[in-house]
Amino acid sequence: MSTVTADTHAHEHADEHAHAGGFLSTYVFSLDHKIIGLQFLFSTLLWFVVGGLLALAVRWQLAYPWSDMPIFGKLLFAAEGGQIAPEFYTVLFTMHATVMIFLVIIPILAGAFGNYLIPLMIGADDMAFPTLNMLSYWFMWPAFLAFGASFFVEGGAAGAGWTSYPPLSVLNSASPGSLNGQTLWLIGLLCVGVSSMMGSVNYLTTIIQMRAPGMTMFRLPMTIWAMFITAVLQAFALPVLTAAGVMQIADRELGTGFFLPEGVAANNALPAAGGGHPILWQHLFWFYSHPAVYIMILPAMGMVSDIIACFSRKPLFGYKPMVYSISGIAGLGFIVWGHHMFVSGMNPMLGMTFMVTTMFIALPSAIKTFNWLGTVWGGRIQFTTAMLFALSFVSMFIIGGLSGIFMAATPVDIFIHDTYFIVAHFHYVLFAGTAMAVWGAIYFWFPKMFGRMMNEFWGKVHFFFTFVFLNCTFYPMHILGIVGFPRRLADPYHYETFRHLLPLNQFMTWCAIGMVATQIIFAINFFSSMFFGKKAGRNPWHANSLEWMAPSPPGHGNFDFQPIVYRGPYEYASPEVETDYYPQTQPPPEKQGDD
Amino acid sequence: MNRFWCIVFLLVPIMGVATFAVAPYYNIWFPRDVSTHGITIDNLFMFILWITGIVFIATEWALFQFTWKYNAAHNPEPAKFSHGEHTLEVVWTIVPAAILLFIAIYQMDAFAAAKMRKPNMQPTAEITGRQFNWDVRYPGPDKELHTLDDIVRYDGNIHMPMGEDVLLVIKSQDVLHSFFLPNLRLKQDVIPGMEQAMWFHAKDTGRFDIVCAELCGWGHYKMKARLTLQTRADFDQWLAETYQAEQAMTTAKVGQ
Asked: Check: CATH 3.40.630.30 for B125-255?
C-alpha cells in the first residue's frame, strides 16, 4: 500500500504550498502541476502564433516569389525593400519547424496536457517531484530566449534546416554573414531537451508510484498510457540528441571535427581539421528525432481515444490492443530512424533493413485506426466540438499514415525524398493530426481547467474553417511531390519542371492565410469563455475518468475526497447502471461475490 | 446539423480521390520518364497508390457510415456495450501485416538495382557539387579521369549519352548537396569526403533539369544545372569540340 502513503505525503506537501501562496508562488513559481500545465499551455499557444506567422511568410514566398510582402514586409525586411531575401527564406522554414516542433507540439502535449492530466487522471494530488516539475517549465525559458534572441543577433537566426545537417550548420563560411544564430539554436535545443527530460522522469515516477487505490495499469485511460510511453521514449532517446548537440556546439565553437571530414572548406575558407563524418550527425539526430515523431503523436492518439469513447457513449474498442500497439510503436520507433536517410549515402543494405522495420511500424497505427472506427461503430455519437476535432484526427491520420508507406518504399523514396510529398505527409500527421487533436483536447478539458464551458457554436465554426482550409493547404502538396517539387527552395519556379505549379501554390497560400485567420475565432472564444463562459459542473460531458470527479477547476491537492477506483475508464452504456456512464470511482451496486 | 458533419467527413475521400484523378490532366503528375528503370519506380508508386487508395476509401467510408448511422440524434438504439472483438483484432492485425510484408519484399529488387548493382565500367564523368553549382569532369582522349587532358566544365551544362549505361562519380566539395534528376528518377545526396556512384540508362534525348535537393545554404534554390541527353555520336562530337575549345583556351593563356 505504498501508493497510499505516497499520496498522503504529497497531499501534505501540496497543502504547505497552498497556504504559502502570494501571487508569485501561486501563478509564477508554482509547484502545482495544474498551474505548470497552464503555464506550458499559454506559452506554447503564444509560440504557435509565431510559428504560424513564419509559415505564412514561407507560403508567401512560394506564391509570390521575390515580391514585396504585404504588411510585415516593410517591417521585417526593410533592407531589401520588403522582399524576403533567400538567406532569410532558409531562416523562415528552419525556425517555423523549430518553433512548431520544439516549442509547440512537444511541450503542449507532454508539458501542458501531460502535466495537467496525469495526476488528475490517476487520482494523485500532484506530481511525484513538484520542484522538478517547476524546473521543467522554467528550463523552457532559456530556450524561448535563445530561439527568440537568435532572430536579432548579427547574421540572423539559424538557417540550416531544423535537422541542422553539418557541414552547413557547422561551417560559418558556408553561410556568409551567419554568426551566432546557429549556436543559439543549439543551446535552445539543449534547454528544451533538459526540460523534456525532467518532465519525463517525473511522469514515469508519478504514473508508476502515485496511482489511486484500485487504479491498476490496465485501468489507466489511454491518455495516461500514451503519456507513459511518450515519457519512456523521451527518457531513452533524448540523451543521444543532447550529446549530439554538444558535439555540434564543440564543432562550431571549439574547432573539433566530429561531423567534418578532413579538408572540407566552403568559400575558400581555411580547411577544417576534420576526422569526423557528416553522416554521423544524421544518425545521432534521427535516433532522437524519429522517436520524437511518436512523442509528437502518441499523446494526441491517447487523448483522441478518450474523447471518442466519451462522445460515442461506448467503451473503447479493444483497449488492450490499443495499449499494445502504442507500446509496439514505441519499440519499433527506436529502430526505424534510418528511413530518413535512404538517399543520404548510408549503406543501401542498411537502408533495406530500415525499410522492413518501417513497413512494420505502419501496423500498430493501422490497428489503432481500426479500433477507433470500432469505437464509433454502434455508439450514440454526440457531435460536440471536441468530438468533431477527434473524428477529424482519425480521418486525417488515415491520410498521414497511408502516405508514409510511399516513403517507406525505398525505390519510391529515391524520387519523392525531399519533395513536397514528404511535407504533405508530416503536415498531415503533425498539423491535421496532432494539432487537431490538441484543439479537441482544449475544447474537451477546458471546463476542467477553467470551470467554464467554451462556446460550442463558435467552436464548430472554428472547426469547419480549420478543417476545410487545412485540407486545401496540405492535400495538394501530395501531387506537388509527385511532380518532384522540392522542399526548402526559395524559388522553385527557377526550374522549368516546376514552373506550371505556381497557380496551385498561390491557391494553397490563400488557404493557409484563411487557416491562420480562422484561429482568431478560436482565440476570442478561448479568452472570452475563460471569463464569461457558462459555468461547468464537475462532469459536464458525463465522462468516467477520475479528473471529472474533481471540482472544476480543481484546487490544490486536486480531489476533495480520496478517489478509489473500481473499474476501467470506458464503462459507457454499462448494463450495470441506469445512467449511460459509470464513473471509475462509483462503487458497484451490491451483489454477491467479487468480480 | 449532425448530418452536415457526416457529409463534411465524406468529402475527404471524395475530394481526396478526385484530386489524384484530375491532377494528371493538369500535368501535375510525374515528369516525363526518360530512364529505363524509372518505370519500376512509377509502377511501384501506382501499386502502393492503389493499395493505400482502397484502404483510404474503405476506412473513410466506414467513418462516414458509422457517424451517419450511429449519431445520437437519429439513432434510437442504445449504444452497444462492447469492449472489442478478439477475432476482428486478429484479422486486422494479420491482413495488413501480410500486405506490408508483401510490399516490403516486392520492392527490394528495385532498390538493389538503383543503389547496389553498380555497372562494371569506367565512369562516364565525375560530378562535384559546390555552393552553388554542379561541376562536371569528363575524361579526355585518354579515357581516364584525373589526368591532364580532362575536360572540366563549370557552366552547369552537363551532357550525357543516351542508349547505354552511364556511370557517374558524384561528390561534394563543401556541404551536403543532393543530385536530383526528376526525369531520370534519380537522387543521391553528395557528401564531402566521400565518393559515390550513380548510374542510369537513358532512353531518349532532350534537355532536363538537374535540381539540388538537399539544403546547401542561401543559394540552394539556384543550384540548378541542365542535363543534355544525346546520342553517342552527338555526345562524342560535343566532347571533342569542347576539348578543342578548352585546349585552344589553355594555349592562348599560356601564350600570353
From this structure: no
